Amino acid sequence: MFAGSNLEKVLSNGHFAVTGELGPMRGTDLGPCLEHAEHMRNHVDAYNITCNQTAVVRIASMAAAIKLVERGMDPVMQMTVRDRNRIMLQADILGGAACGVGNFLCIQGDHQTLGSEPQAKGVYDVDSTQLMRIIKNMRDENVFASGDKLEAPLKAFIGGVVNPFADPFEYRVDRFAKKIEAGVQFVQTQCIYDMDRLKEYMKRVVDKGLHEKCYIMAGITPLKAVGAAMYMKNNVAGIIIPDEIVARLKGAKDKKKEGLKMAIEQIQQIREIEGFKGVHIMAIAWEEMVPHIVEEVGGLLPRPKFD
Amino acid sequence: MIIGERKPLEEVFNRTDSFKKICVLGCETCVAVCLAGGDKEAQETAEAIKMHREQTNNPVEIKASSIQRQCEYEFIDEVMEELKEYDVILSLACGVGVQTMATKVPEMFILPGLNTSFLGYPLEQGVWMENCKACGDCVLDRTYGICPVTRCSKSMMNGPCGGSSEGICEVSKDTECGWALIYDRLKALGKLEYMDEIIPPKNWSTSFHGGPRKIVREDVKIVRGE
Ligand code: SF4
User: Fold this and answer.
1) Are B9 and B107 found together in one domain?
2) How far is the CA of B151 from the centre of ligand 1 (A)?
3) CA B214 – ligand 1 centroid, Å
4) Which of A29, A121, A215, B218 is the most buried (most CB within 10 A)?
5) Is position A307 within any domain?
6) Which residue of B has its CA nearest to A164?
């Protein structure tokens, strides 16, 4: 065991893992975030805590992660390299680990000009691949990026993201391989809507044997409304929403119900695709629907329990 | 070269309003080539200030002039005495020129008339592109001529982020993805293996993050007394 976190146990024991996503609040009350966590307690194995998601200021992911640990839940602490240099990144890893956080997910982060503080200075001292290697070296070699020794060992299960829908497409699988080389142990994909492209990507992943070196979890986000779908389709770089998905949503009487139905079907479909070891459900501003989705997919409950 | 852009005239008017004798001084090197701060722009700026002063009943004695480079003492020397007749110098040089002037003529007020934008090159007539951040540790050998520090909006060293779409950066539809450019270039040169190499964290201490930089070359220094 690298961290002994619940997520690591679920994945390493060969179970199909389920994770949810929580976005901390834009004020000092973490209540709603913790309520969402409680609500999906029996339906997910771990909870991603986003890190100033979409470059919008929020409660720090570490603070929310520690609150979950206190409640006996397993957080996946997201860390962007946009807002912290290597000093603070390593400090937060130590801090999180010291308080019981086991899963650290390294991401680049959306560019600061797209968020709530567009005049901010972006840090980008290291990139997400380098951060993976830094954590790996802290854990396996007991050294910081500088080469100095840690005073007590680090336990960490290292996560990352992959985006089959970004370009250059033909490089995406090699980029994933590079992240594995850097130390990533589990990855979650960008939100999946384009099944054809996903299948092509996963075929290449499996051909390279990457699915045997890293746990791959499919990212699923239910669509709530046609407007939201169109916004993502046209404005969010690296997300592909095929026209037929939009058309299906448009054609439905009850858009929300249809959005959930599509998400459930998508999860059922990805379970048939070779290489996936779990699903990551990002029900943004719709967290309360996660239990319903998990129940409807079938065969995912009860979630495995470990002592 | 250094690319600059003229400050908005309003800002220039406000900053110079209290001075009675103004010299607008252009610089005939980089900023002249990028059509921001050469002799021609100095004349135009002086003309604009003069008109503004006439309209606001605030007469001014103003002159436009230029020197080859404001970033070297020897060129400043040539006009030094003349400059001292003015209350203020509105320099259309880059920040380097403005500061060199301020060091050379410490008793005078020097104001910047330009915003120094970046190190770059003219892409086409009227379009300039940033392509160097002067990080002090050039990595262009690894990417064969396209700088990831400058051309990637997040200065990533290990390939494109998840926001790269059809060659465009997530930051704006007008921004090319630097890593898409690097990928295409390496592919064309048959050097794609670079993309698989993990580049360790960069040493930023050679950039501004090590504090203001200074180069001392003993081999070319003039040793006093010799
Ligand atoms: S889209 Fe390309 S240029 Fe923009 S931040 Fe990502 S990798 Fe860098």
Assistant:
1) yes
2) 8
3) 31
4) A215
5) no
6) B162
* Same domain flag for B75 and B7: yes
Mutate to test the interface with A, among B143, B147, B165, B182 (most CBs of A within 10 A): B165
* Chain centre to alpha carbon of residue A131: 16
* Containing structural domain, residue B198: 134-206
| Contact state of A166 with B163 under an 8 Å Cβ cutoff | yes
Q: Has residue B114 been placed in a domain?
A: yes
- Examine the pLDDT at B25 and tell me if it is beyond 80: yes
Instruction: Say yes or no to pLDDT of B226 above 60.
Output: no
Atom of ligand 1 nearest to the CA of B171: 4
What is the total count of domains within chain A?
Answer: 1
User: The complex's ipTM?
Assistant: 0.95
CB contact under 8 A, B156 and A134: no
- The answer to whether B196 and A177 have CB atoms below 8 angstroms apart is yes
**Residue A303 in domain:** no
pLDDT digits (tens, 9 = 90+) for A169-195: 999 999 999 999 999 999 999 999 999
pTM to 2 decimals?
0.96
pLDDT at position A135, please? 98
Query: Ligand 1 pocket, B133 CB below 6 A?
Result: no
- List of residues 6+ apart from B128 with CB closer than 8 A: B3, B34, B117, B120, B121, B122
Q: Check pocket membership of B178 for ligand 1, CB cut-off 6 A.
A: yes
CB atoms within 10 A of CB A196: 9
Ligand 1 mean position, distance from CA B176 (Å): 8
Residue A123, helix vs strand vs coil: coil
Measured at the CA of B193, the angle between CA B190 and CA B197, to 5 degrees, comes to: 155
**Contact assessment for residue B89 and residue B83, using Cβ atoms and an 8 Å cutoff:** yes
Q: How many CB atoms lie within 10 A of CB A257?
A: 10
Q: Which two tokens mark A58?
A: 């929020």
Which two structure tokens, joined as six digits, stand for A261? 């139905």
Total Cβ atoms within 10 A of residue B95: 15
Per-residue pLDDT band at B223 (split at 50, 70, 90): confident
Residues 6+ apart with CB under 8 A from B77: B104
- Whether A94 has a pLDDT exceeding 70, the answer reads yes
Residues 6+ apart with CB under 8 A from A272: none
pLDDT band at B224 (very low <50, low <70, confident <90, very high): confident
Dist CA A121 CA B154 (whole Å): 11
